[in-house]
Predict the structure.
Amino acid sequence: MPGPVVEPRGGRPGVDDGLDRLWTPHRMVYIGGQDKPVDDTAGQCPFCRIPALPDADGLVVARGATAYVVLNLYPYNPGHLMVVPYRHVSDYTDLTETETVEVAHLTQTAMRVVRAVSAPDGFNLGMNQGAVAGAGIAAHLHQHVVPRWSGDANFLPIVAQTKAVPELLADTRAKLAAAWPGAGEGDA
């Protein structure tokens, strides 16, 4: 994925409007929905396909018996994780008791690992149930674990609908996977 391009002041040649510009054209893929799956049925949605990939390729940080932990491909902040049941289920109330417990435990472990690796000041945790509630992939439940730091929000998301994320996903995944309890016991 290409990085941002910083353009010197002035939007038009020869006119200095006093603004620097941070261009992040790769974000248009997300904003425009080009990567949104057309087929989000069981077995076809990204959350069903990710577990079949090697961990590094799928951005998987850890695997449990009924759920796994994966980096968000379009993170709000470095270390933005999602806890996802393997089973293709859309509603939280449809999880089995075993799945519910493991999603909760993996969420707790994700918070502990991110704290150890990145020392955030807090977290946002949440599940968006349905497209109207903001779920990008509504057909497959996923719990967001978003680390937050004082001052991590700035003008970019508000003015430019752009989030500057200072670390590559592969680097974040490697750090979190290495710090996960039991790391080195399998494909980390």
Q: What stands out?
A: The helical segments are 28-31, 46-49, 55-58, 97-118, 155-160, 169-179.
